[in-house]
Amino acid sequence: MGKKDVKIKIVKPRIPKRVICSICGMRQTFRKEKEHWKIVKDIDVNITLLLRVKMVYAKCLNPDCAVGSFALPIPGIKKWARATDRLKSEAVASLIDDNSTTPRTARRLNRSFNTTGSKSSIDRWKHQEADKYQSKEIIEKLNFSGILCVDEYKPSRAKSYDLIDSDGETGRILYVTPIEYLGRGLIKEHFLKLKSLGINPQVIIFDMRKVFPNAARKAFPGVLIQHDYFHVMKTIHWHLRNAMAEFRKKLKEKGFYTQDLWECRWIILKNLENWTSEDHKIMQRLLNIYSGTVIEDILVIKEQIRDIFLKSQYKKEAYLRRDELSSNPILKQNQHFDNIFKFLSTPYFEYMVTFLEHPQVPRSGNSENVIRVWRQMEKVRYGFKTAKGRLDHLKLYQISKYLEGNFFKT
Predict the structure, then answer these.
(1) CB 226 within 8 Å of CB 204
(2) Which residue, 61, 148, 231, 349, shows the most beta carbons closer than 10 Å to its own?
């Protein structure tokens, strides 16, 4: 059979002796009020399958009922629907599980299942399914670990930022909130919103934004705060890159060849234990050329700073290692190195080493991985058009990926 072959299947409801009104809930004897036929699209891999469905309406015998009649239920077909539940489920699953778009899903339905579904219809099915679920109910089933990771990111086609919240232990996305700007009041409102959704963390991990700690403590008194180690080292690497760029610029002004530094800049900043055998050979050659220069100082400073966080056993020891760093004469020879120590000397250093005092607190969060996953969903559709569309997609993603749920289950 070809794709143009059409099969029409007759579907009729079972006529019971007694029925329950779907509006008032009264159990009563069946009495037919009216009937009509409608065509409903279904999926089939071989032919175009259309269902000719007989809709039978029962008269409600309750005089106080808001309606005079109600339709007898037909499994897999809603009262006003022109498509079966499994067709809608397949379309929504394509959007969520396959991370596809509405145009691609429409073409897939036509190509693989010999049926049609417009972009607007598929989008409507998605929102209708998402509207069945509340974020609070979904979050409750996710069994939040108590470790909350918060990070900001800028969605595609958006002028403002979103805050994305995830479980620091499981890596699951919990909630996404649009925020006009990263002000203290708006951040506090965001945390209070999380609290209303049943998210009450014992630990919060976020980046170096100064507005986060006070807002978090006001919304969640007694919460432990940890600055993400990834973001701490990201700031330090930014200063180290500036020091390297400034050194390279001075060499170029004097006419020296500096292309080797440019090509090896990421190896210089890479953690020593991650160097390959080839990296060791490259660095040995570089150190023979740049011994006693900023390049060698960068390697020394970088390892000393990492030792503060990786080799300290207690919070007090981390403070001692940091203070020992101040006695290093290298800091005074370079403004960028001095900026690093100023950064580590701020009152926020306390939040950088919380994990040393509380073993249950992770040193790093998972926000960057979570944002990477979320951006993959945004990329294929060039960003979500509305905040509701973004949240609806998240709800269905949570049900599908985390709760292993099936759409259109009754």
Answers:
(1) yes
(2) 148
| CA distances in angstroms from 112 to 46, 63, 90, 109, listed in the order given | 9, 49, 11, 6
- What is the predicted pLDDT for the residue at 4? 60
- The structure's pTM equals 0.85
Tell me the β-bridge partners of 152: 163
Give the per-residue pLDDT at 319. Answer: 95
- Name the phi and psi angles at 49, rounded to 5: -110, 120
R_g (Cα) of the chain, nearest Å: 30
* pLDDT on residue 410: 38
For tokens 């949240």, name the residue: 391
Q: Does domain 136-228+365-402 have CATH number 3.40.50.880?
A: no
How many of the other CB atoms lie within 10 Å of CB of 54?
14
Calculate the dihedral angle through the C-alpha atoms of 269, 271, 274, 279, rounding to the nearest 10 degrees.
Answer: 40
Residue written as token pair 């891999």: 45
At 398, phi and psi to the nearest 5?
Answer: -60, -45
Residue with tokens 């403004």: 335
